[in-house]
Specification:
The complex is a heterodimer of chains A (about 290) and B (about 775). Chain A has helices at about 15-20, 35-40, 75-80, 85-90, 90-100, 105-110, 110-115, 125-130, 150, 230-235, 240-250, 265-285, and strands at about 5-10, 25-30, 50, 60-65, 70, 135-140, 140-145, 150-155, 155-160, 165-170, 180-185, 195-205, 210-220, 225. By secondary structure, chain A is an alpha+beta fold. The chains are: A alpha+beta (about 290), B alpha+beta (about 775).
């Protein structure tokens, strides 16, 4: 039984915005895989819900005329995994969302909800960071665009104001064309688990030189993060085994994992370093490099 | 012939179509729900409690606290009653308590119209405590000036020892034997608290069908024992309590304990017989019911250069948590297995069971043996390695053989196929070849290893407890039979096995045997329930005798009808046959109609047997495992695993395989990931939910293999021995031994989680921060 006070079904984005403004205590619910757990646990602030589940306006994966890849915030993970566009252009996003929960969760949980939940362990987030995804946010008569790295404000906090809805993830062609990526989730179980560390690498090579390199983590700090020092040190370097070792050393200066009862800082750091090597190696292999 | 066939479960269709009714599916109009108010501290005493605000909340029917319950301590363990007062369970529990003994202890209870109102009412209860230092580690619990968690207990629930010197079964004092051994190998082993995680949480409701009698519907493994304990807890005659058991969604021992039933009975009594239900959440179930006892075990093994183990000395501490529940019986049962597994050496086992301010431990699949045999089989491996002998060879030299004498019981082992189990497993793994191949895989970041471990278990609880089973079989008018047993189906398949047994002895088709699936203590024959892997073994003789008796009555009636001698007749495939001429005489329906409706001869043909089993057949088995260890990521991957069991004659190969797979799965969980995480200073429990309690998923399991060595056990009705619990026992030590083989690192505590591997690898210099990038 859920202690639900008010459930309002929105029939459009504008309707949802209006409902949010009329009901200042209301929250959005899409798949409900995070919201219903909070409601069950009696967490305050979740008993009035504006339901955008299965809103067709938010359910699309497409490539526009400028070759931007656009993903609606209401797209469920199973549809991302099965999308020809995503499989062809950003397979690492398939890897990432394939690691979430189990089949039932992936059939109902949305990419928008995963990110609006605002947690560092969101499995789709580190990949979106590595892809420089831009989020389109609609309010009453307003539309604004926010880079994913600015969207995360702190644990559980995202850049959404009253009456705003995240509608679209945009990945521009300069952020995926020619790039090869890999996502590695480290958890205590192979399914139905929260990431101990998530690591996404996206890179571009030319004649065995790494032209661009991006590495992003979940659970390496309070919010998902990129690693600018490491990235800078890798760009324009020649592919080599020793470079992998070097990456695993430099990465320590970028991240700030903490000790919790789930895992110690030392343990997380060990995994962060090891995953930097393994994810980079896999991305390089996908790029046709030999390591 | 139904025995040995993989017939479909008799409840298969009801279950897969969702028609099988579990306790939560059953409903009484106007049923109220009750929720416990639980302590937020692990050790203390309630200073003040104020429930007035909760009481006046709309929709709340009543609130009771420790002040309102009978001052009548009772024992909750699902054991048969013991006539010997010295062997009775420890009565240390009240319905609600003022003294807090673990985080989650039950202080008050709210009865409301629905669970949301009940939850809100819980938040309105005001409480203050006197807090005491939680006692969690053995050294603190046993300190002289440690607070007594239960007054007068000294924090010790039980203590015992046995030794070959005292038993005089074989000669030899264990200390002398250790002295004379070529080598003595010693190890300290630890296991943690784990949970059953049965799919259906604990649930029960009660109502009164008149003003005199209480009816309890409960998800329980032990309906008849529930009846007795409720009558004890509420001080009312047993005949005024009726317990009904519908379909059960698993128990694994956690429902071999009386957990919710006395409370729902108390509440309906207080509320004029209105129906009251308690349906625990998963979070409550993981801390507020029962768990597995954590053990600390020291093992000394004396071994000769030729590979003979000559001595084994064990000292164990078992932690039972805030209340005794099954108490010291767990350590006693676990410790007995050394004597059937390795019966030819000087042996001494000593154990103490302690109270602690952690959740209550009770019965769980294999009842102490997973803890003790884990330690024994790690120690056996260490002994084999000490003298550089192959792990399988070493075990073959020392394990039990048929006609050995079980040291503890003094009884001859009548069937033992363990050596053949080891040989089968060894062949399946291609042990010798793999061992050679893996010699090259003992360095670098990725390593490989092989492990083996053996097990022994029992087929019931005799002579510690009575073993009684009842069976009643009636011939129906259409020539089929109905069987009623007290053996409790909890998902393990016992009703199917009972039908197979009855069909076999009666000469009927399996489809013509119906087993009454709901149990009701008003009508079901007496049986103490589902535990100790006893059901198929103990019920076998009752069913065999009842079926044989009914068969005789059927043939007598056929004799009356045909004028032939009953001894010349038989039932073959459901038909009466003249054994001299092989002539078909009549079908069962014709006979049944005559027995019921002929005006002068016959009667309803029934048989009713209650049988006490006074034997207890040991069973055997082993696990072989092949693993890859990823050192930088601190992960173990199981490449191949097989359990091989000697459980006597296999009654139903598919069901038996299911038992083995489920057990191996639980064993892998205990080996690699499962642990109820308890803060050692505060007693706070971190992970009482299925996200943070790392129960394996299908994605975490390798393909599980199994095989059997079928011996014939002469003390059983159909040659069968136990199988329900044994498969869980040997995977953890086999995996630990494989890790040792792969890395040279001994990890002597469970679970072998990534965190533990990280610490151990770091300590042993296996974590290299640079180089070794070839992953």
């Amino acid at each position: 039984m859920f202690d639900l006070k008010k459930h309002m079904k929105a029939n459009s984005i504008d309707h949802a915005i209006a409902l949010l403004l009329e009901n200042p205590d209301a929250r959005l619910i899409a798949g409900g895989t995070d919201v219903l757990i909070k409601l069950r646990n009696g967490k305050p602030g979740f008993s009035e819900l504006v339901d955008i589940h299965s809103l067709e306006e938010l359910n699309f994966i497409q490539q526009d005329e400028k070759n931007n890849i656009l993903i609606g915030s209401g797209v469920v993970f199973t549809d991302i995994i099965q999308s020809d566009i995503i499989k062809k252009h950003i397979p690492m996003l398939c890897d990432a969302v394939q690691s979430i929960g189990g089949p039932q969760i992936r059939n109902i949980a949305t990419i928008g909800g995963n990110n609006c939940n605002g947690v560092t362990s969101a499995d789709s987030a580190s990949t979106l960071f590595a892809l420089n995804a831009v989020l389109e946010i609609r309010g009453k008569g307003t539309t604004r665009q926010v880079p994913v790295s600015d969207f995360y404000l702190g644990p559980g906090k995202v850049d959404l104001k009253k009456g705003e809805i995240l509608t679209t993830f945009k990945i521009t062609p300069e952020n995926y064309q020619g790039y090869f990526g890999y996502f590695y989730k480290y958890a205590m179980r192979n399914a139905m688990d929260i990431a101990t560390i998530g690591c996404a690498v996206s890179l571009k090579t030319k004649k065995h030189i790494i032209e661009d390199y991006r590495i992003a983590y979940g659970v390496a700090g309070p919010v998902p993060m990129r690693c600018p020092k490491t990235e800078k040190s890798v760009i324009n370097r020649k592919v080599s085994k020793s470079l992998l070792d070097e990456i695993s050393q430099t990465i320590e200066t970028d991240v700030s994992p903490r000790t919790s009862w789930r895992a110690t800082k030392d343990f997380r750091m060990n995994i962060i370093k090891e995953l930097s090597k393994r994810a980079t190696k896999e991305a390089l292999l996908r790029a046709g490099e030999e390591v | 012939m139904a025995i040995g066939k993989s017939v479909n479960r008799i409840d298969a269709i009801a279950k897969v179509t969702g028609r099988a009714e579990y306790t939560e599916d059953l409903y009484k109009p106007g049923m109220l729900v009750a929720r416990y108010f639980r302590s937020s501290i692990a050790h203390g005493r309630v200073k003040n409690i104020d429930v007035e605000k909760a009481k006046v909340l709309e929709g709340v029917e009543a609130v009771f606290t420790f002040k309102d319950v009978p001052e009548n301590k009772f024992a909750t363990a699902g054991h048969p009653f013991s006539i010997d007062p010295d062997h009775q369970d420890v009565a240390d529990r009240l319905l609600l308590t003022r003294d807090i003994r673990f985080m989650g202890d039950e202080i008050a209870i709210v009865v409301a119209q629905d669970e949301i109102i009940a939850s809100k009412a819980l938040q309105l209860i005001e409480i203050s405590y006197d807090e005491y230092t939680p006692l969690i580690l053995p050294e603190d619990i046993l300190k002289k000036d440690a607070r007594q968690i239960h007054k007068g207990s000294s924090n010790i629930v039980g203590e015992h020892q046995y030794s070959t010197r005292d038993l005089q079964v074989i000669s030899g004092d264990v200390d002398d034997a250790l002295e004379k051994a070529d080598y003595v190998v010693e190890g300290n082993f630890e296991t943690v608290m784990v949970q059953h995680c049965h799919l259906e949480n604990h649930i029960a409701y009660a109502y009164m069908d008149d003003l005199d009698r209480i009816v309890i519907v409960s998800s329980t493994q032990i309906p008849h024992i529930v009846r007795r304990i409720v009558s004890e807890a509420l001080n009312m005659p047993l005949s005024r309590v009726r317990v009904i058991k519908p379909f059960i969604g698993g128990g694994f021992g956690n429902k071999q304990d009386v957990v919710l039933e006395p409370m729902v009975a108390f509440l309906t009594l207080k509320l004029d017989g209105r129906a009251v239900q308690i349906n625990l959440s998963r979070e409550e179930c993981m801390t507020g019911t029962r768990n597995r006892h954590p053990f600390h075990i020291n093992v000394k093994t004396g071994v000769m250069k030729d590979g003979t183990m000559v001595a084994r000395k064990m000292d164990a501490i078992s932690i039972t948590g805030g209340y005794a529940s099954h108490g010291h019986a767990i350590a006693a049962a676990g410790g007995s297995k050394q004597s059937s597994l390795y019966p030819r050496m000087a042996t001494k086992f000593h154990a103490r069971t302690l109270y602690a301010n952690i959740p209550v431990a009770g019965a769980m699949r294999a009842y102490g043996s997973p803890q003790v045999i884990y330690a024994l089989e790690c120690a056996t491996e260490d002994a084999a390695r000490k003298i550089n002998m192959d792990s399988v060879e070493f075990r073959l030299k020392n394990i039990a053989r048929q006609d050995d004498i079980n040291l503890l019981s003094g009884k001859k082992i009548l069937s033992c196929g363990l050596a053949d189990c080891l040989l089968k497993g060894k062949a399946f793994m291609d042990w010798d070849k793999k061992k050679k191949e893996y010699e090259k895989c003992k360095s670098g970041p990725i390593r490989k290893g092989l492990g083996v471990a053996c097990l022994s278990y029992t087929s019931g609880t005799y002579p510690v407890c009575v073993e009684i089973a009842g069976a009643r079989i009636s011939l129906n008018q259409d020539g089929t039979v109905h069987v009623m047993v007290g053996a409790t189906e909890i998902g393990q398949g016992s009703d199917t096995i009972v039908a197979q047994m009855a069909a076999e002895t009666l000469g009927l088709a399996y489809e013509h045997v119906r087993v009454v699936q709901t149990q009701d203590t008003d009508v079901s024959p007496f049986d103490t329930g589902a535990y100790a892997s006893r059901q198929a073994y103990v019920v076998s003789n009752a069913v065999f005798r009842a079926a044989a008796d009914l068969k005789k009555k059927i043939l007598d009636h056929a004799g009356l009808m045909t004028g032939k001698k009953a001894r010349d007749l038989n039932i073959i495939n459901g038909k009466i046959v003249d054994t001299h001429t092989n002539a078909f005489l009549m079908d069962m329906k014709t006979l049944a109609i005559d027995s019921f409706y002929h005006k002068e001869r016959g009667c309803q043909l029934t048989a009713d047997v209650s049988h006490k089993t006074t034997t207890n057949a040991p069973v055997f088995g082993c696990t072989f495992v092949d693993i890859t260890v990823d050192i930088p990521l601190c992960k173990i991957k199981i490449n191949k695993i097989i359990n091989v069991h000697d459980s006597g004659i296999i009654l139903n190969p598919v069901q038996a395989g299911g038992q083995v797979h489920g057990g191996v799965f639980m064993g892998i969980g205990a080996a690699l990931s499962e642990e109820l995480m308890i803060n050692p200073a505060t007693g706070y429990i971190y992970n009482n939910n299925l996200l943070d309690y790392k129960f394996p998923t299908f994605m975490d399991l390798p393909q599980i293999h199994h095989d059997f060595v079928e011996t014939f056990e002469p003390t059983s009705g159909y040659g069968n021995k136990s199988l329900g619990e044994p498969p869980v026992i040997s995977p953890p030590p086999a995996i630990r031994n494989a890790l040792l083989d792969a890395t040279g690192v001994s990890i002597n505590s469970l679970p072998i989680s990534p965190h533990k591997l990280f610490t151990a690898f770091k300590k042993n210099g296996l974590m290299v921060s640079k180089g070794d990038a070839d992953v």
